[in-house]
Amino acid sequence: MFQVQLTVEPLSPPTYAVVAAVDVAGIDMASLLQFRIHRRGYEPITRRGGEEEEEKAAPAYEAAMFEEEGLEPDELEARGDRLMARGHRRASSWWFTSFKHHTAFAIAEDFRMAGLSYVLAKNWRKAAAAFGNEAIPRLKRRSPPADLVAAVALLASARCYRKILDNADEGEVAAIKPALQKAVSLFTKNNDMRSAATCCKELAEFHEEQRELHHAVHCFLQAKDYYGSGPDPNEQGVRYCRAIASLVSCRIRLLEGAAARANPVRLRCSTMGL
């Protein structure tokens, strides 16, 4: 005989919690299950670490909209640190990664929320690292929607690194190019040509900043092609990339001419075919 008791407790409107207590012939189901588990020689699996306690003690503003919070930069950075720590802990916990259906999404969301907190705090270095970490679990899902979100995260990571380009170390500068190249590849793979053009233009501007002018011209022309493809081409983007590619090409010719005039012996040998 089953006896079901439902208790409705009002919480913050319009949310309600429904607590169900089920008794089977006067025996508590939890104690029965616990007894059977111990009889079979298994120990009950519990949540490892302090994640459950941390989630209970987490401030209420973590679930609020960013634009409604009005937090100070140090508070935003502290929240980002908490979310980053939780994401890393989840990614390294065997009990959490065993639930594969929602694991990648939950870990990626921790890193994404951390990145947004760092952006509001204007800590671009931490934001770039957070968005880069977000892309990793999304790429593991190997689905078109996850690939597109991962590409957005890679683009955000590269943009954050570019904001600290003057003070960035070699590793941070080196991370920009592969992030943008991977984002371009993911967008083109999923036929999002306008977003691919945006990433390609970002990559061209990065090459120009690094004085890799030939690579910059190539990327600007590739972005022009992406802007012009598809059923709804972006004519303004096409004109912009074509014009900038022409300007950079002129700059290359001027620099080559100045270098040749600075070394007339080399210029004379080149004209004589030596």
From TrEMBL:
Protein transport as UniProt keyword: yes
Family stated for the protein in its record: Belongs to the SNAP family.
Gene Ontology biological-process annotations: intracellular protein transport; SNARE complex disassembly
Keyword Cytoplasm: no
Classification via SUPFAM superfamilies: TPR-like
Keywords annotated in UniProt: Protein transport, Transport
One cellular-component annotation, GO: vacuolar membrane
GO molecular function: soluble NSF attachment protein activity; syntaxin binding
The protein's name: Uncharacterized protein
A Pfam short name: SNAP
Domain of life: Eukaryota
InterPro entries associated with the record: NSF_attach, TPR-like_helical_dom_sf
